[in-house]
Amino acid sequence: DKSGLEERKQESKQKLEAFEAAMKGLGKRRPKYTEYPHVFKEQIKSDEAKNNKAGKKSKKPIRAATRPDDVAEAAAWDTIGIVYLDDGAPRTSTVVASRVQQAAELFIQLRTDMSKANTAVDDAVKANKPEAELTKLKDASEAKKNALFKALDATVEHADDAVIDNLGGHQKLISSLVNALISCIKASDFSGKLPKIIFELFTHFRMTRKIAETTNFDTVRKRFEDKGDDDIKDYVREISAKVKKFKAAEPETATGY
């Protein structure tokens, strides 16, 4: 009957609107097929296969053919070349481990560069350097900070699932990211783009003992949950829930690469 049809249409409309709202809330990365509601899985697979086949020859490159001159854009370009894997690329443990190691080394170096630039600004302030010199150093520091942000942002957006899943198993990288968050705390940056992308990245890592037991990470999360904006609070709560669940399970092996 007509009233029943209209009722079903309205119910379907509400469900689709709720689904779209949920997808927008996920940010740059979309869930894996297993995380979608069952009724959408087969259609998504079919649509994606059709689109991949149709756009195989005209597919837009993930990154530009040449490395950009801009420091931050170059960092993103380098990152994509490491963390992105073509559909047909092998995803063996050796390949994934190599990409994880390369990405970790790049991010650690970018964080080190940012830290050195911050120290240069602090030293200039203490030494009462001329305003022109101080401005130049601050600009350089901001550029290094933006380079790290762009690299991590490119990872969240373009990294292969196998790579991003296992980045959480790299102890030096985790320590470096936590130290970057500590630098944000010292700068009273509790809701800026750098701490947000770091926490967002952590939400995509497969939880490991290296994350759960990282020195100061609990304290750092609590500071950001207390002083950060709603986005930060949501990221921190999600990470803390994963840490709690991991510690309760106490698996013997989940260390990643």
Quick summary of this structure?
The protein is mainly α and 257 residues long. The chain has helices at residues 2-24, 38-54, 71-83, 93-126, 131-158, 161-167, 171-186, 193-204, 209-212, 217-227, 230-249. The protein starts with a helix and ends in an 8-residue tail after the last helix.
Report what the structure shows.
The chain is mainly alpha-helical and 257 residues long. 72% of the residues lie in helices and 0% in strands. The chain contains 11 helices and no strands. The longest helix has 34 residues, at 93-126. The chain is globular. It starts with a helix and ends in an 8-residue tail after the last helix. The relative contact order is 0.09. The model has no long low-confidence stretch (mean pLDDT 85).
| Average residue pLDDT | 85
Number of strands: 0
Class by helix and strand content? mainly alpha
Q: Percent of residues in beta strands?
A: under 5%
Q: Show unreliable segments.
A: none
Shape: globular
Instruction: Supply Rg.
Output: 21 Å
Largest sheet: none
Topology order in helix (H) and strand (E) letters: HHHHHHHHHHH
Topology:
Blueprint: H1 2-24, H2 38-54, H3 71-83, H4 93-126, H5 131-158, H6 161-167, H7 171-186, H8 193-204, H9 209-212, H10 217-227, H11 230-249
Helix pairs in contact: 3-4, 3-5, 4-5, 4-6, 4-7, 5-8, 7-10, 8-11, 10-11
Key terms:
257 residues, mainly alpha
